[in-house]
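--- STAGE predict ---
source: upstream dedup step, 1 unique chain passed
mode: sequence only
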Amino acid sequence: MSQPAIFIDRDGTLNVNVHHLRRAEDLQLIPGAGEAIARLQQAGYPVVIITNQSAIARGYITETDLADIHRELDRQLAAIGTQVDGVYYCPHHPEYGDKTICNCRKPAPGLLLQAAAERNLDLARSIMIGDNITDLQAGWNVGCHGALVLTGSGQQIRDQADSDTLHKIACIGKDLSEVSDWILHQAPDASGLAPS
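--- STAGE serialize ---
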C-alpha cells in the first residue's frame, strides 16, 4: 500500500539560501530544520528533498560537486540523529547549458512523479513544502497539499501572492519546524495524511 510523504525543497526551506550554493562547507541548515525532519520521520513519514539545481546547467558546479554538498547535508542531519529518505534534483535550465526543456524543473512535476513511482508514495496524501510558489505548484500539479515556509523567499512570496493562491496553500509557517508541527498536530485532515 502506498504511503504519504513529505516533500521538501532544499535551498531556503531546509538550508540557508545562498545564491547558487557551490561548496559543501557553505551548507548551513536553517535552525530547527533537522529536528523537524526527525519528528516527521519518527511519525512514519518518508521525507524526500525535491530541488532545482540550475547551478549545474549554468556551469557553476558539477554533479560531483552537488554530491559533495549532499554528503555534507547527510553529515549534518546525521549529527542530529536523522536523515532524508531521498534527494531528487533537476540539473537543467531552459536558458543555460544544453537548454533542456525538461519535466523535472519545478514547477514541472517530474521529480515528484519519479519519487512516487520509485518509493510507492501516495501523492494525494502527501505535502510539498517550500519557500517559493514553484515548489507548491510542483506539488499541486500532482495533487499534493502545499505548505509555504517564510524562510528563504517565502515572506516575499506570501506578500506578493494573490488571494486565490493564498487560499490554495494548506499551511503557511514561519519555518520548516512550524510547518512540521502543523502536519503532526494541527492539519485539519491529518487522519487522511497520516502514514498507515
